[in-house]
Amino acid sequence: MALPEEKTILVVDDEPDVRQYLAAILEDAGFNVLTAADGEEALRSIRQQRPDFISLDLIMPRKSGQKFLYELRKDKELARIPVLIVTAHARDDLGRDDLRDILQSSTMSGPGTYLEKPIKPLSYVRSIQRALGIEETQDTSEKLGLKEALQNELQGADSDALRKALEALKASTKR
After folding, report:
1. Between residues 41 and 172, which one has the greater pLDDT?
2. Measuring CA to CA, how many Å separate 89 from each of 18, 98, 99, 150, 154?
3. CATH fold of 4-136, please?
4. Do residues 9 and 32 lie in contact, with contact meaning Cβ atoms separated by under 8 Å?
5. What is the model's pLDDT at position 61?
């Protein structure tokens, strides 16, 4: 069975914060990660280093996820790379039609072909692990679950609580 550290994931998203967030989740799960800001950059990246999997935003400038995916599927060597669409626009006017076109044209099919933002880290990693035939370990579940719980708590925390949490984390890493 494959291991995460043996696999490279290309994260394609035009939002720098989202791209960095998704990359951090995958790195925490043990994957090697490449990133690209749009479909054009992703195609250049793939030609330099072929990834084992692609996490693809749907709505991007220059070359959208849909256009990128169609170009990828036309290339016999690259067409077999599994792709997961990660989009905030599955149900709105910006992306609904593009996603429906992708799913109906059999460019992608089956369960787990897309996730809606905001994504849950564990669901994201599990989707990729299943597609790549990687065992879903308890260690990964615990680590990502703790990270997700911490992020949820941080969203509602006041400045004093955040400061104390940061100090506690810094103190624990100095040991």
Report:
1. 41
2. 14, 9, 9, 26, 26
3. Rossmann fold (3.40.50)
4. yes
5. 84
